[in-house]
Design brief:
Helix content: 55-70%
Low-confidence stretches: 95-105, 245-252, 260-264, 652-656
Radius of gyration: 29 Å
Distance between the termini: 76 Å
Structural class: mainly alpha
Number of strands: 4
Strand order of the largest sheet: 1-2
Strand content: under 5%
Number of helices: 36
Length: about 675
Amino acid sequence: MFTGMDEVGWASMKHAYGSAEDVPELLRGLASACPEERERALDGMYGAVHHQGDVYDSTLACIPFLFELVGHSELRDRDGVVELLVSIGGGDAFDDGPLEDGDGAEGNHAMARTAIRSGAAAFVDLLADRDPQVRRAAPTALVRFLDQPERVLGLLAGRLEEEEGEQVRPALAEGLGLFARLHTASAAPAVEHLVELAAAPHDPGLRLAALGQLAGCAPDRLPADLVPTVVALLRARSRHPRVPDQPERPDTDTDTLIGHLRRLRPADEEGGHLLRTLHTALGGRTSDRIALLKGQLSSDEPADRCNAVWLSAGLFREWRGSYEELVALIGEQVVTEEQRLRDAASSVLESLFGLAAPAADHLAALVAVGPEHRVRQWEHGTPALGAPLKALARAGDPRAVAALAEVLHGPVVPPEVGYEVRHLGPAAAPLAPLLRERLGEVPLDALDTYDRAVPLLFALGRLGHAPAVPEMLRLLHGAPQGLRSREWLVRAIADALGGCGPDAREAIPALRELLDGECAVAAAGALWFLEGDAEAVLPTLRRELVSGQLHARNAAEALGRLGPAARPALPALRGMADSGKVWLRASAAGALWDIAGDPGPVLPTLRSAWEQNAHTRTLLADCLTRMGPAGTPAHDLLRTELATPRRHQARAGTYGSDNIGEDEQLLRACRAALDAT
């Protein structure tokens, strides 16, 4: 095996971390008899040789040896090597159209695709490989890279007649669906196969797989009673004994990304995959998706409910809708005895912010059970706020206050506590003395001074807790010049002082000293809140309008808070409103209205920024709220936004959650602007 590998000039090639001289060791590791070594080698291939989807010269040089590996039937875990080849060849990037040479790829990516297509005949034999995991991986590789559509279709159909593996047949159905999407001119026979597979007497797993593929390539062929059909198939599948999704692994776990992801897999990974495919294809048909999820969440099988929780997260992230009933059902899962299900539900609810309110009673009950649901301890590193408590706080539920107080009394305060306090509004006032006390304990010159202090400053500023001013000034005066992120720490202190208003007047001399430095805008904004003297801060803010983009934006917004007292800055703000930079225009529009009260120059600027960048819309909707009836000519923008079903920041298949909170904030701002008339 690996004939000629040592003659390749690996040392002259590169991967993500420099020289590729270690690649032969990784390739040999993929052929090791030791499962831990194979896993580490595959992790190294994804981590360096194919880092984040990149293709290097060393990646290209690996392709012949990867094909050699998959051809040796005595080797284990070859399915991972097949999936690696698929990823190197383009992965999902080629799902949206027919297979064309060079389609959407350049340079090394195009060469990789060509190389894998040249060797794609090797995937034919894998359809009948003795390893069922390899047979599961083979259809996708075959469809993507063997450029003989009629032969591919015949191979898939023939294998379906012979395949006895209950877990392999759904992969063949997925191959048919992929074929129909990529080879549209030859799709009809594949669609007919899928229609036949979606009907009785085929087993429930295969029927679910076929329905998911039909939803993606021929939605008009789906049954009219899709939701009850899918729920019934799920019930039948749950009652049917199944072999594990993955073969048993040794007790020893590897400290690799792949090992970590394997440990995070749901108990029924195949079931999750089948339903995720269907949900992805259904897209914006939110009513159907909600009904499906409600059916799953009422299942007696915890694995089905766990899959439904994670699938709900994808729906919430991508689409707007009325989710009260669905969220309430997820809330019921946080008090289950199944830890995997409880953790999944808590994690999803944590991402929903105000949308989690229907689950608040169950979250509060779980938080009351014990400290493990309030703080999550890690083997290494700083403790984190527990997902149930974070979800309860983000939902704005006052019952989170007592639990957060206990956390603040603890030996180590998770840094994010300060940021979550804002969601509780005035109800969080009892936490202010505790936040002040913890701020007073922050060391002045530690590596983590910034990380510990800034969330506390954020919370104290939001609460306007003036008794904490001495602790804020202690940090301001005592943090040494060489402290990590000192400039950002000083800005956070200035913002917190400004939040305390006139009761923080003792900080005025210190803030005035900052007017000539990097934190000038924050200091000027705070001084305005403290003493209301426009003449003291106007020169600084006007000067900062012509600084870098971030300074200019902050200065414009601070000038807007001065109102008519900032009229001398109007010429510069009008110039900013004509800027080619959309965020400068958005900030200038709000300031122009707040200072001059003239909708004439504001509305065109506001409209252009709104249409150019969706991320400016919350800022602009707040401006329209302040404009009241004068903003009526732009209310069509608000109504269109409220009628748009998809979240602007949605990224299908990702796990970020902040976009939900930000998007819901935008919707609230749009409604407030319409109500302001």
